Amino acid sequence: MKILLSGATGFVGQYLTKELLKNDHQLYALVKKTSDTRLDPSIVQLTLSSLQTLDEQIDVFINLAGENIAARPWTAKRKEALFQSRVTLTKQVRLSLKHPVKRLISMSAVGFYGISRHGTFTEETMPKQGFAHELCRAWEDAANEFIDDGTQVVVFRLGVVLGNGGALEKMRLPFLCGLGGPIAGGQQWFSWIHIADVIGAIMAAMSDASYEGTYNLVAPQFITQKRFSQAYASSLNRPAVLPTPRWTLNLIFGEMASLLTEGAKIAPQKLEKRGFRFQFHNIDDALSDIANGR
């Protein structure tokens, strides 16, 4: 297959490229400058400008791009950057391609459902409003515009992706220092997914044409943020007792604190119905696997 990736050097992208390189695929990576030494030499690097000159039809475009939504407080400037890196880029790729791609696999996030501690959210549940929802909805809308070109579109709404790197890397030092206790009481829901299951779902959507539409890509196990804190601290042989008050996070992060202090209960209903086999259903098993080198 001819596969185009955006976000190839990101957390998920690095795992995915390693998996794709095991097979006989021609990989193209969308980059800002065609000199990224982090990419395997066999991967063709393309900017948006050079993408316009590509006279080949792409079989699959895997859209992983997007600046880290939790990296900095949501100022007006930061919100614009988050939109640009997701929504605008997705639109630009569609307009730059000479030939429509056959299949698009695009990421979104469970932030689509907004802020709520009550009820269970499936792919059919009406979302709550807020910035995270607006960002994810616009991103998904941009992906679904590819349908007008005859492209088959799959959208995955990701939970917190757990693996060596990514979110866990940012949490590791506070937990090692014994500062990884419950946030704002810890009763908010924590939707998670092991990186192996993210890669497994993407690979399945590449090879199985019956994948179409939107899927919640989260583990089937429902846990609270407190339960996650206890499990992660245990995997590091550390305690998880010191709580982080809500007001502290609100003071530091402003509106963005809602990502940490609130969380909806998300179910992977459509993936379970189609028989997708999760490698990791249980948070303790997932974190143990990661601690052992995943």
TrEMBL record:
Pfam families: DUF1731, Epimerase
Superkingdom as given in the UniProt entry: Bacteria
InterPro entries registered for this protein in UniProt: DUF1731 (IPR013549), Epimerase_deHydtase (IPR001509), NAD(P)-bd_dom_sf (IPR036291), SDR39U1 (IPR010099)
Boundaries of every DUF1731 domain copy: 244-290
All copies of domain NAD-dependent epimerase/dehydratase, residue ranges: 3-216
Homology family: Belongs to the NAD(P)-dependent epimerase/dehydratase family. SDR39U1 subfamily.
Protein name: TIGR01777 family protein
